[in-house]
């Protein structure tokens, strides 16, 4: 019988305190949030975000489907990065072609909380209500959120400062990595 302490762990799923101590373990997991459907210009933003994250050695975590999720995974893969897709359905076959690790949840949109809770920081690029829910979950869980042309939040008539605004993919990645390291 295997004791709990002897059970193998997937390197990308190590507790935050243990990551970075193993040479085969990416130091940070950064989520990229955004819409299923996006323009070519927005897709290009997602690709660049994914590329820059991979170049920094971060694992890209996304919803695993199309649109911004595909764009960020495609960018990361083009630079040799590791990609994880947290899928709403029950089949890993639903993942886009750029996802290395597909995690089917069968939870539909409820998987959004699983996605953000497995990240050290998230970058929201554009987005609709699904992206807004992911932003809200991340803020509620204390996970840093960087926004690239995404939602602005207003609370009691004042801008909520929970989303760190970036004007470019380069700035978004730099901010997300800095904020993640502060966790």
Q: How would you describe this structure to a colleague?
A:
With 183 residues, the chain is an alpha/beta fold. Helix content is 33%, strand content 19%. Helix 1 crosses helix 2 and helix 1 (40-55) packs across helix 5 (169-181). The radius of gyration is 16 Å and the shape is globular. Mean pLDDT is 89; it is low at 1-23.
List the topology elements.
Blueprint: E1 29-33, H1 40-55, E2 59-62, H2 68-78, E3 83-87, E4 101-104, H3 111-117, E5 121-125, H4 129-141, E6 145-148, E7 154-155, E8 158-159, E9 163-166, H5 169-181
Mean pLDDT value: 89
In the CATH scheme, the class would be Alpha Beta
User: SSE string, helix = H, strand = E?
Assistant: EHEHEEHEHEEEEH
| CATH-defined topology | Rossmann fold
What topology, given as strand order, has the largest sheet? 4-3-2-1-5-6-9
Give the % helix: 25-40%
Q: How many domains is the backbone divided into?
A: 1
| Secondary structure: number of strands | 9
Which structural category fits the helices and strands?
A: alpha/beta
Number of helices: 5
Rounded to the nearest angstrom, the radius of gyration is 16 Å
Outline, from the CA principal axes? globular
Question: From the coordinates shown, what is the CATH architecture?
Answer: 3-Layer(aba) Sandwich
**Terminal Cα span:** 36 Å
Low-pLDDT residue spans: 1-23
Approximately how much beta-strand content do the residues carry? 15-25%
Main beta sheet strand tally, sense and closure: 7 strands, parallel
